[in-house]
Hints:
- Two copies of one chain form a homodimer.
- By secondary structure, chain A is mainly β.
- Chain A has helices at about 10-15, 50-55, and strands spanning about 30-35, 40-45, 60-65, 70, 80-90, 95-100, 120, 125.
Amino acid sequence: MIFPSANTAAELERGAVLAPRFDANGLIAAIAVDAHSGEVLMLAWMNAEALRLTLDTGEAHYFSRSRNALWKKGETSGQVQKIVEVRIDCDQDAVLLKVQVQGDGGACHVGFRSCFYRVVEDGVLVERQ
Amino acid sequence: MIFPSANTAAELERGAVLAPRFDANGLIAAIAVDAHSGEVLMLAWMNAEALRLTLDTGEAHYFSRSRNALWKKGETSGQVQKIVEVRIDCDQDAVLLKVQVQGDGGACHVGFRSCFYRVVEDGVLVERQ
């Protein structure tokens, strides 16, 4: 086991031990936000190895569900995410990364800064940064 | 089907049709941020019904994986989340809600404003708002 488990709700919610709760597929959701602006850039997934590498190297690593493989963000795009802070939520099943984006400053493969470039308006998607 | 499916990558990524991709359990990740401060408040899950209700009522609804049930945020706590904006990401498998929190302004059942009240520092969790 790369990470321990919490034994009680108190340990999980108020404890000092990082005890992430990976799902049945061994994954945990990770939100990346721009450390400067606070903008939400993307949501991706981590397995235990990706979280360990993120903490140890100071650069965001994720697990691709479609490719079923670990990946370092920015390895091909140059959009490396330098870690400023890592947070975990109350029940330790979601991670929040505050990052400084390298390269062109973007996070989305479509070309937008954030992956959340579309707003739902009257049931229709409208692109807006 | 409550929502349609996208047929091509172009439709999925640049189309105007809301075609959320729910996972094998019928769920999609939803991030709630404070519309005023931009602070990430929580990450939760939605099934199609929860997303539909969120869009139609203007108040955040989620699906509890532990209770296996739909819930309206704030129904018991008063921490209702009024929707200011709903966004979806490039591959339509994550939702971003900008919300105005009613009640005491918090989102976390532990008592903090945000669920992400712990920072990982040297491998140890430290509470910090």
